[in-house]
Design brief:
Number of helices: 21
Helix content: 25-40%
Distance between the termini: 32 Å
Number of strands: 17
CATH superfamily of the largest domain: Aldehyde ferredoxin oxidoreductase, N-terminal domain
Bound molecules: iron/sulfur cluster
Shape: globular
Largest sheet: 6 strands, mixed
C-alpha cells in the first residue's frame, strides 16, 4: 500500500519524564482510534493492573482518516484500563488535537509510568520537531477554561490542547479528558468523557498535552484526486440530505420523551413533565436574542451539530449542550430548566467530569434523600466544591456506584460500574444488549438502536452489527453524527492507501477491535456476571406498558458469537 509515509508515534515515559518519537509499525496502518488503542492495550498493558497505578497505559490515538480532507474525520480516541469499569475503555472527542497530531504524522501517543511524586504536574509538548515532557506545576489545580486561557499566552495560536481539570488530578473515576475546539478562543469543551480516563491521565501527573501543527498540511492520500472527488461528492450528498443534527442532539428530547427514554427521577419513570423546558428547541430560540448558534467543533466538520450556548448577557457559557446532558443532569434529577443544565454542563467541563456519570450520581444522591429533587443550585454547589475534596464531592466525582455506596442506596443504574446513558434499555432492548455485552459497559456510543418495535429475533443481530459499525467508525476518525457506513469508510481507506479494502477486511477490522477489547476484559477477570442489567432496571417498570428489562441472559451471550455478514450491514449508518 502507498499513501501517507513516514508515520511515527510518540512514546511517553512519565516515570522518567521522557518522550521518544519512534516509527509507526506498517502492520498497524489501518488501525486508528479505538482499534489502535485496543491493540496497544492488549499487547502492552497488563489487564490486571491497578488502573490508577504505573502499570496502566494511556493511549491517545486519532482515527485513520484524521488530518485528511475527508469531511468530519478528525476525532481522537483516548484509551486505557478504566478505573470506573476496571475493564478496557475508549472514549473519543472532537476538537482539533486529533487533526493536528495527524497532520504532523503522529499516529498516537502512548503514555506509560507514573512520577514518583504524585504532587508533581507535567505537560507533553508536541510539534514538528518532536515531543518533550516539561514541568507544569504552575497549572496544578486549574479548571479547564482557566488553564487553556493561560496556555494561550504561551503557545502559538495554531496549537490545540488536551487537558484535565481538578477531577482528573484528584483521580476521581468520573473524570474526563478535554480537547479544545477549533474556535479562536480554543474552548476546552470537547470531552472524551466516559470511563474515567481523566483520572488515568491525572494518575500519570499529566495536566495537559499541547500540539502545535505549525504550518503542517493535510495528509496526502495515495489517490489524491479520487479522494478529493469522493469528499466533494460525500459533502454534497450529505448537505442535500435530511441534516438530522442541524439543531444538535438536544432536538431529540421530545421524541425520546414519547419513546419513554427521557428518564426522570433516577430512572423511576421514562418520561419527564419538564420536556418542554428541556427541549433543545428552547436553546435554538435563545440564539436570536443572546447570540450563540450552531458550529463545528473541529476543522472540516460539515455536520455542525454543536450548539454554542450564551447566557442572558450574550456571553459564551458552554458548548455543546447535548441530549445526554439535558437528560442525565436535567430530567433525571428533575431539574427543569435548560439554563440550569447549561450551568451544570459548564461546571462539569471546568472541573473535568463526564456529564452522564455525574448526572446519574447526583440523581442517586437526590433519590436517597440527600437533596431535594430539582435542586439545581444544590447540584451546582456540589460541583463547585468537588475540588475541595469533601466526602460527598469525591463520591459524586467518582460516579454512580460510589455515590450509591456512600448513601447505601439500592437504585444504582449501571452496567460494569458505568452509569446508563439516557437511551433506556427498557423500551430499547437491542440497545440494552449492547450495554450488557459491549466491552465498554453501558455506553450508547458502543451501539445504539433506536427502534422500540424491533422484533425479539432481531435484537442480537441489531446489537452486534451496531457494535461492529461503531467500532469501525470510532477507529476511522469520522464522527458518529456524520453517520458514515462501512462501505463509505472502506472506500476512503482504499483511496488513502491506494489499495482496495474489501467488505470482509473492513468487517474484520471492527470485529478484531471488539475481540481485542473482550479479550482484555476476560484477562482482567470479567465473566458473564458482569453482563447483567442492574436489578432496578429489571424491576422498576416505566410507562403505560410497564416496561422492564426482561431480556434473557442467553440472548446477551449470543452477541459474542460472530454472525454471518449480511450485505445490509455495509449500508448501515453509525449511530450513537
Ligand atoms: S458532528 Fe458535531 S460532535 Fe461531530 S465533529 Fe461535528 S460538531 Fe463535533
Amino acid at each position: 500500500m502507498g499513501g501517507p509515509t513516514g508515520d511515527r508515534m510518540i512514546r511517553v515515559d512519565m516515570t522518567k519524564q521522557t518522550a521518544e518519537v519512534v516509527p509507526f509499525p506498517d502492520a498497524w496502518k489501518l488501525l486508528g482510534g479505538r482499534a489502535l488503542s485496543a491493540r496497544i492495550l492488549l499487547e502492552e498493558c497488563d489487564p490486571s493492573c491497578d488502573p490508577l497505578g504505573p502499570g496502566n497505559v494511556l493511549v491517545m490515538a486519532p482515527g485513520v482518516l484524521s488530518g485528511t480532507a475527508a469531511p468530519t474525520s478528525g476525532r481522537i480516541s483516548m484509551g486505557g484500563k478504566s478505573p470506573l469499569t476496571n475493564g478496557i475503555k475508549e472514549a473519543n472527542a472532537g476538537g482539533n488535537p486529533g487533526q493536528d497530531l495527524m497532520k504532523l504524522g503522529y499516529r498516537c501517543l502512548v503514555v506509560k509510568g507514573q512520577p514518583k511524586d504524585p504532587g508533581k504536574r507535567f505537560a507533553v509538548e508536541v510539534d514538528a520537531a518532536g515531543a518533550k515532557v516539561v514541568p507544569a506545576d504552575a497549572h496544578k489545580g486549574k479548571w479547564n477554561y482557566k488553564l487553556v486561557e493561560d496556555l494561550a499566552g504561551s503557545y502559538p495560536q495554531t496549537a490545540s490542547f488536551i487537558s484535565i481539570g481538578p477531577a482528573g488530578e484528584m483521580r476521581l473515576t468520573g473524570a474526563s479528558i478535554a480537547c479544545t475546539d477549533q474556535e479562536q478562543a480554543r474552548h476546552p469543551a470537547r470531552h472524551a468523557a466516559r470511563g474515567g480516563l481523566g483520572a488515568v491521565m491525572g494518575s500519570k501527573g499529566l495536566k495537559y498535552v499541547a500540539v502545535d501543527p505549525g504550518k503542517a498540511r493535510v495528509r496526502q492520500p495515495e489517490k489524491r484526486k479520487e479522494f478529493m472527488e469522493l469528499s466533494k461528492k460525500y459533502t454534497k450528498d450529505y448537505l442535500a440530505g435530511p441534516l438530522m443534527f442541524k439543531h444538535g442532539t438536544s432536538s431529540v428530547v421530545p421524541v425520546a420523551n414519547i419513546l419513554q427514554t427521557f428518564p426522570y427521577k433516577n430512572r423511576t419513570e421514562g418520561q419527564s413533565p419538564d420536556v418542554a423546558t428541556l427541549d433543545g428547541a428552547r436553546i435554538v430560540e435563545s440564539f436570536a436574542t443572546r447570540g450563540g448558534g450552531m458550529h463545528n467543533c473541529m476543522t472540516g466538520c460539515i455536520v455542525q451539530c454543536s450548539n454554542v450556548v450564551h447566557d442572558r448577557d450574550g456571553k459564551y457559557k458552554t458548548s455543546a449542550l447535548e441530549f445526554e446532558t439535558l437528560t442525565l443532569l436535567g430530567s433525571n434529577c428533575a431539574i427543569a430548566s435548560w439554563e440550569d443544565v447549561a450551568d451544570l454542563d459548564r461546571l462539569c467541563d471546568e472541573v473535568g467530569l463526564d456529564t452522564i456519570e455525574t448526572g446519574a450520581a447526583i440523581a442517586i444522591f437526590m433519590d436517597s434523600g440527600g437533596m431535594a429533587w430539582g435542586d439545581a443550585e444544590g447540584a451546582k454547589r456540589i460541583l463547585r466544591e468537588i475540588s475541595q475534596g469533601s466526602e460527598l464531592g469525591r463520591a459524586i466525582g467518582n460516579g454512580a456506584v460510589a455515590t450509591g455506596k456512600l448513601r447505601k442506596h439500592h437504585r444504582v443504574p449501571v452496567v460494569k460500574g458505568q452509569a446508563l446513558p439516557a437511551w433506556d434499555p427498557r423500551p430499547l432492548k437491542a440497545t440494552g444488549i449492547t450495554y450488557c455485552s459491549s466491552p465498554m459497559g453501558a455506553d450508547h456510543t458502543a451501539g445504539l438502536i433506536v427502534n422500540p418495535g424491533l422484533p425479539q429475533d432481531q435484537w442480537v443481530r441489531a446489537s452486534q452489527e451496531a457494535q461492529l459499525v461503531n467500532a469501525v467508525t470510532d477507529s476511522s476518525g469520522f464522527c458518529q453524527f456524520l453517520q458514515p457506513n462501512l462501505d463509505d469508510i472502506r472506500s476512503y481507506y482504499g483511496l488513502l492507501y491506494g489499495e482496495e479494502v474489501s467488505r470482509e477486511q473492513i468487517a474484520d477490522l471492527g470485529w478484531n477491535c471488539l475481540s481485542d477489547e473482550w479479550e482484555f476484559n476476560r484477562r482482567a477477570g470479567f465473566t458473564e456476571k458482569d453482563d447483567l442489567m442492574p436489578e432496578c432496571i429489571q424491576q422498576d417498570a416505566i410507562g403505560p406498558a410497564k416496561l422492564v428489562w426482561d431480556v434473557p441472559q442467553e440472548l446477551v451471550a449470543q452477541a459474542y458469537e460472530r454472525l454471518p455478514l449480511r450485505p445490509e450491514m455495509f449500508a448501515q449508518k453509525a449511530a450513537g
